[in-house]
Amino acid sequence: MANSQVGILKGTPYFDGVALGNSSKISYSVDTEEKTLADNENPGGGLDDSFERVTAVKLSFSFRRISVKSLELAFGGTSAAVTAGAVASEPHTVAALDQLVALDHPQDMSIALVVKNSAGTTTYVEGTDYIRKRVGIIPLVGGAITAAQALTFSYTKAAHVVIQGLLNMTREGKVLFDGINERNNAPFVGGFHRVKMGVAKNVEMIGDDYVSFDVEGKCLKDATITNPAKSQYYEIKVGAL
């Protein structure tokens, strides 16, 4: 058939110019409603006319790379980077023995943790008084630490990013899909001018497969585009057909 080609599409999505990395799915879908006019002159029924109206245009993503941007989109949040560094005498109180005492930051487990009483006169022993975890310690029954005791922790925090969930539920931006047809190396590019992103409906924190952040966005009208020959929603650029 002339002027047609088969296609297997691959590519990278961008949100406001930031690459979202490897994605196993980017799907375009349309919701419509049908308006119909019954043929009231024909006793047998039928339609005099029908018209289908678009009610929503959606983009669905399955991000397979963990990045600051994909996490912000998945959790509808804001982000802040925390640099690695020493933490001195961080105070916490033991709620109960054999229960986790969580620190303010994840630890660099390659560097020693020092746990003391609040007066700083007693240093407790890992394995005897507590079990060390990345996020804190578990005081042991039979050790020298007691319930309701005030402790201080000196450790090295690992570099990390903090995502504050559901603090940015109005995230909106331009989505660009930089794609290629594997069958002929022709470009397949999608530019969606204004996309309102929703949060991930489901994120598996523990699983046997690679993590996936499934996010859906809605294409909105971009009123800044005033050229009547251009769509205010999106445009697709395809290699020569």
Question: Can you put this structure into words, describing what you see?
Answer:
With 241 residues, this protein is mainly β. Helix content is 3%, strand content 49%. The protein folds into two domains: 9-38 and 51-79 and 169-238, Pnp Oxidase, Chain A (Roll), CATH 2.30.110; 84-158, no CATH class. The strands form four sheets. Strands 1, 2, 3, 4, 13, 14, 15 and 16 form an eight-stranded antiparallel β-sheet that branches. The radius of gyration is 28 Å and the shape is elongated. The N and C termini lie close together (11 Å). The mean pLDDT is 95.
Q: How many extended strands?
A: 16
Shape: elongated
Q: What's the architecture of the largest domain, going by CATH?
A: Roll
Portion in beta strands: over 45%
Average pLDDT, all residues = 95
Would you tell me which CATH topology of the largest domain applies? Pnp Oxidase, Chain A
Helix % is: under 10%
Question: In angstroms, what separates the terminal alpha carbons?
Answer: 11 Å
- What series of H and E elements makes up the topology? EEEEHEEEEEEEEEEEE
Major sheet: size, sense and barrel closure?
8 strands, antiparallel
Radius of gyration: 28 Å
Number of helices: 1
Going by helix content, strand content and strand pairing, the class is: mainly beta
CATH class category name of the largest domain: Mainly Beta
Number of domains: 2
| pLDDT < 50 runs, ≥5 residues | none
